[in-house]
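INPUT
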Amino acid sequence: MLIAGNWKMFKGPGETAAFCAAFLEELEDDRGVDVVVAPPFVSLQAAVAELEGGPIRVYAQNVHWEEEGALTGEVSRSMLIAAGVAGAIVGHSERREYFCETDETTALRAAAALESGLGVIACVGETLDEREAGETEAVLRRQVEAIAATVPEPPEGLAVAYEPVWAIGTGRTATPETAQEAHAFVRGLYPVERILYGGSVKPENAEELLSQPDVDGALVGGASLDVVSFAEICRTAARLSRS
Ligand code: PGA
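OUTPUT
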Protein backbone atom coordinates (compact mmCIF):
# COMPACT_ATOMS: atom_id res chain seq x y z
CA MET A 1 0.00 0.00 0.00
CA LEU A 2 1.29 3.47 -0.89
CA ILE A 3 -0.10 6.71 0.53
CA ALA A 4 1.17 9.92 -1.06
CA GLY A 5 0.42 13.46 0.05
CA ASN A 6 0.22 15.99 -2.78
CA TRP A 7 0.60 19.37 -1.11
CA LYS A 8 0.04 21.36 -4.31
CA MET A 9 0.92 25.05 -3.77
CA PHE A 10 0.83 24.87 0.03
CA LYS A 11 3.58 24.94 2.70
CA GLY A 12 6.86 26.82 2.33
CA PRO A 13 10.12 25.47 3.79
CA GLY A 14 9.39 26.43 7.42
CA GLU A 15 5.92 24.88 7.46
CA THR A 16 7.25 21.84 5.65
CA ALA A 17 9.96 21.21 8.27
CA ALA A 18 7.44 21.61 11.10
CA PHE A 19 4.94 19.29 9.40
CA CYS A 20 7.53 16.56 8.79
CA ALA A 21 8.79 16.59 12.38
CA ALA A 22 5.25 16.43 13.79
CA PHE A 23 4.15 13.82 11.25
CA LEU A 24 6.96 11.41 12.15
CA GLU A 25 5.78 11.48 15.76
CA GLU A 26 2.11 11.19 14.88
CA LEU A 27 2.59 8.24 12.50
CA GLU A 28 4.63 6.21 15.02
CA ASP A 29 4.59 2.96 13.05
CA ASP A 30 4.75 2.74 9.27
CA ARG A 31 4.86 -1.05 8.91
CA GLY A 32 2.70 -2.10 5.97
CA VAL A 33 2.54 1.27 4.24
CA ASP A 34 4.91 3.26 2.03
CA VAL A 35 4.46 6.96 2.66
CA VAL A 36 5.38 9.80 0.31
CA VAL A 37 5.06 13.57 0.74
CA ALA A 38 5.20 15.89 -2.26
CA PRO A 39 5.81 19.50 -1.20
CA PRO A 40 6.37 22.42 -3.61
CA PHE A 41 9.86 22.62 -5.20
CA VAL A 42 11.20 25.24 -2.78
CA SER A 43 10.27 23.07 0.21
CA LEU A 44 11.76 19.80 -1.04
CA GLN A 45 15.09 20.25 0.71
CA ALA A 46 13.44 21.13 4.01
CA ALA A 47 11.42 17.91 3.78
CA VAL A 48 14.48 15.85 2.84
CA ALA A 49 16.46 17.31 5.76
CA GLU A 50 13.72 16.29 8.24
CA LEU A 51 12.96 12.86 6.75
CA GLU A 52 16.38 11.66 5.58
CA GLY A 53 17.23 8.14 6.74
CA GLY A 54 13.63 7.44 7.73
CA PRO A 55 10.84 5.53 6.01
CA ILE A 56 9.02 8.49 4.44
CA ARG A 57 10.07 9.48 0.94
CA VAL A 58 9.95 12.92 -0.63
CA TYR A 59 8.60 13.39 -4.16
CA ALA A 60 8.41 16.51 -6.33
CA GLN A 61 5.13 17.51 -7.96
CA ASN A 62 6.62 17.46 -11.45
CA VAL A 63 9.89 16.81 -13.31
CA HIS A 64 11.16 17.63 -16.80
CA TRP A 65 12.60 15.05 -19.20
CA GLU A 66 15.56 17.16 -20.39
CA GLU A 67 18.75 17.31 -18.35
CA GLU A 68 19.08 21.09 -18.61
CA GLY A 69 18.23 23.87 -21.00
CA ALA A 70 16.38 27.11 -21.63
CA LEU A 71 13.19 25.85 -19.99
CA THR A 72 12.04 28.55 -17.58
CA GLY A 73 10.15 27.20 -14.60
CA GLU A 74 11.15 23.56 -15.08
CA VAL A 75 13.29 21.28 -12.88
CA SER A 76 15.36 18.32 -14.10
CA ARG A 77 15.75 14.80 -12.80
CA SER A 78 19.36 15.25 -11.75
CA MET A 79 18.46 18.40 -9.82
CA LEU A 80 15.87 16.46 -7.87
CA ILE A 81 18.24 13.57 -7.25
CA ALA A 82 20.95 15.99 -6.05
CA ALA A 83 18.42 17.45 -3.62
CA GLY A 84 17.72 14.00 -2.16
CA VAL A 85 14.29 13.67 -3.76
CA ALA A 86 13.10 10.11 -4.44
CA GLY A 87 10.49 10.62 -7.14
CA ALA A 88 7.88 12.83 -8.79
CA ILE A 89 4.19 13.08 -9.55
CA VAL A 90 3.53 13.60 -13.27
CA GLY A 91 0.44 14.45 -15.30
CA HIS A 92 -1.69 15.73 -12.42
CA SER A 93 -5.04 16.98 -13.72
CA GLU A 94 -4.25 20.52 -12.52
CA ARG A 95 -1.10 20.44 -14.68
CA ARG A 96 -3.15 19.14 -17.61
CA GLU A 97 -5.98 21.65 -17.11
CA TYR A 98 -4.11 24.86 -16.25
CA PHE A 99 -0.62 24.35 -17.67
CA CYS A 100 -1.25 22.62 -20.99
CA GLU A 101 0.29 19.28 -20.03
CA THR A 102 -0.69 16.52 -22.41
CA ASP A 103 -0.65 12.74 -22.51
CA GLU A 104 2.63 13.04 -24.44
CA THR A 105 4.43 15.35 -21.96
CA THR A 106 3.18 13.23 -19.07
CA ALA A 107 4.60 10.11 -20.71
CA LEU A 108 7.93 11.82 -21.47
CA ARG A 109 8.25 13.00 -17.88
CA ALA A 110 7.38 9.55 -16.51
CA ALA A 111 9.79 7.67 -18.76
CA ALA A 112 12.72 10.01 -18.12
CA ALA A 113 12.22 10.03 -14.36
CA LEU A 114 11.99 6.24 -14.17
CA GLU A 115 15.10 5.90 -16.33
CA SER A 116 17.03 8.00 -13.76
CA GLY A 117 15.86 5.78 -10.94
CA LEU A 118 13.26 8.19 -9.59
CA GLY A 119 9.88 6.85 -8.50
CA VAL A 120 6.86 8.13 -10.41
CA ILE A 121 3.18 8.61 -9.67
CA ALA A 122 1.51 9.15 -13.06
CA CYS A 123 -2.00 10.60 -12.84
CA VAL A 124 -4.93 9.78 -15.08
CA GLY A 125 -8.66 10.44 -14.78
CA GLU A 126 -11.74 11.70 -16.57
CA THR A 127 -13.55 15.04 -16.18
CA LEU A 128 -17.21 15.27 -15.21
CA ASP A 129 -18.22 16.01 -18.81
CA GLU A 130 -16.30 12.99 -20.02
CA ARG A 131 -17.92 10.74 -17.39
CA GLU A 132 -21.40 12.02 -18.18
CA ALA A 133 -20.78 11.48 -21.90
CA GLY A 134 -19.87 7.85 -21.17
CA GLU A 135 -16.25 8.42 -22.17
CA THR A 136 -14.52 7.36 -18.95
CA GLU A 137 -12.98 4.19 -20.35
CA ALA A 138 -11.93 5.82 -23.62
CA VAL A 139 -10.20 8.65 -21.74
CA LEU A 140 -8.45 6.26 -19.35
CA ARG A 141 -7.37 4.10 -22.27
CA ARG A 142 -5.89 7.09 -24.11
CA GLN A 143 -4.06 8.38 -21.02
CA VAL A 144 -2.74 4.99 -19.88
CA GLU A 145 -1.71 3.89 -23.37
CA ALA A 146 0.38 7.06 -23.76
CA ILE A 147 2.33 6.07 -20.64
CA ALA A 148 2.54 2.43 -21.74
CA ALA A 149 3.94 3.55 -25.11
CA THR A 150 7.01 5.12 -23.44
CA VAL A 151 7.22 2.66 -20.53
CA PRO A 152 6.05 -0.67 -21.97
CA GLU A 153 7.13 -2.69 -18.96
CA PRO A 154 6.15 -0.81 -15.82
CA PRO A 155 8.94 -0.99 -13.25
CA GLU A 156 8.32 -1.27 -9.53
CA GLY A 157 8.93 2.44 -9.06
CA LEU A 158 5.91 3.40 -11.16
CA ALA A 159 2.46 3.86 -9.70
CA VAL A 160 -0.57 5.09 -11.62
CA ALA A 161 -3.03 7.31 -9.76
CA TYR A 162 -6.64 7.24 -10.88
CA GLU A 163 -8.01 10.66 -10.01
CA PRO A 164 -11.45 11.43 -11.40
CA VAL A 165 -11.21 15.18 -11.97
CA TRP A 166 -14.75 15.73 -10.63
CA ALA A 167 -13.65 14.31 -7.27
CA ILE A 168 -10.53 16.43 -6.77
CA GLY A 169 -10.89 19.09 -4.10
CA THR A 170 -14.68 18.94 -4.41
CA GLY A 171 -15.50 16.79 -1.41
CA ARG A 172 -17.25 14.51 -3.89
CA THR A 173 -15.48 11.17 -3.63
CA ALA A 174 -15.96 8.35 -6.12
CA THR A 175 -17.90 5.51 -4.53
CA PRO A 176 -15.70 2.52 -3.71
CA GLU A 177 -17.46 0.64 -6.53
CA THR A 178 -16.76 3.39 -9.07
CA ALA A 179 -13.13 3.53 -8.00
CA GLN A 180 -12.78 -0.25 -8.13
CA GLU A 181 -14.31 -0.40 -11.60
CA ALA A 182 -11.88 2.21 -12.97
CA HIS A 183 -8.89 0.60 -11.23
CA ALA A 184 -9.73 -2.83 -12.63
CA PHE A 185 -10.04 -1.27 -16.08
CA VAL A 186 -6.63 0.41 -15.79
CA ARG A 187 -5.09 -2.81 -14.49
CA GLY A 188 -6.45 -4.66 -17.51
CA LEU A 189 -4.72 -2.15 -19.78
CA TYR A 190 -1.38 -1.96 -18.05
CA PRO A 191 0.29 -4.34 -15.58
CA VAL A 192 1.41 -1.64 -13.16
CA GLU A 193 2.00 -2.85 -9.61
CA ARG A 194 0.21 -0.08 -7.78
CA ILE A 195 -2.87 1.89 -8.74
CA LEU A 196 -3.68 4.68 -6.29
CA TYR A 197 -7.04 6.37 -5.92
CA GLY A 198 -7.16 10.16 -5.59
CA GLY A 199 -10.00 12.63 -5.13
CA SER A 200 -11.27 13.84 -1.75
CA VAL A 201 -9.70 10.97 0.22
CA LYS A 202 -10.20 11.66 3.93
CA PRO A 203 -9.85 9.67 7.15
CA GLU A 204 -13.61 8.99 7.03
CA ASN A 205 -13.64 7.36 3.59
CA ALA A 206 -10.11 5.91 3.39
CA GLU A 207 -11.00 2.49 4.71
CA GLU A 208 -13.79 1.72 2.26
CA LEU A 209 -11.75 2.96 -0.71
CA LEU A 210 -8.53 1.21 0.30
CA SER A 211 -10.41 -2.05 0.92
CA GLN A 212 -11.20 -2.43 -2.78
CA PRO A 213 -9.17 -5.23 -4.38
CA ASP A 214 -7.56 -3.07 -7.08
CA VAL A 215 -6.97 0.01 -4.92
CA ASP A 216 -3.34 -0.16 -3.80
CA GLY A 217 -3.09 3.18 -2.07
CA ALA A 218 -4.12 6.81 -2.30
CA LEU A 219 -2.94 10.16 -3.61
CA VAL A 220 -4.24 12.60 -1.02
CA GLY A 221 -4.50 16.36 -1.54
CA GLY A 222 -6.36 18.45 1.04
CA ALA A 223 -6.29 15.87 3.83
CA SER A 224 -2.51 15.47 3.50
CA LEU A 225 -1.96 19.06 4.64
CA ASP A 226 -3.02 18.19 8.17
CA VAL A 227 -0.69 16.03 10.27
CA VAL A 228 -3.45 14.24 12.15
CA SER A 229 -5.67 13.40 9.19
CA PHE A 230 -2.77 12.35 6.94
CA ALA A 231 -1.35 10.09 9.66
CA GLU A 232 -4.78 8.57 10.20
CA ILE A 233 -5.09 7.70 6.49
CA CYS A 234 -1.58 6.17 6.56
CA ARG A 235 -2.43 4.11 9.65
CA THR A 236 -5.63 2.84 8.02
CA ALA A 237 -3.63 1.72 4.97
CA ALA A 238 -1.03 0.04 7.17
CA ARG A 239 -3.69 -1.82 9.14
CA LEU A 240 -5.48 -3.00 5.99
CA SER A 241 -2.31 -4.21 4.32
CA ARG A 242 -1.22 -6.10 7.43
CA SER A 243 -4.59 -7.80 7.92
P1 PGA B 1 -7.91 16.18 -2.96
O1 PGA B 1 -6.75 16.21 -4.08
O2 PGA B 1 -7.58 15.03 -2.04
O3 PGA B 1 -7.80 17.51 -2.27
O4 PGA B 1 -9.20 15.97 -3.66
C1 PGA B 1 -6.24 15.04 -4.64
C2 PGA B 1 -5.20 15.38 -5.69
O5 PGA B 1 -5.40 16.36 -6.43
O6 PGA B 1 -4.17 14.69 -5.82
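end of record. The domain at 2-242 is CATH 3.20.20.70 (TIM Barrel).
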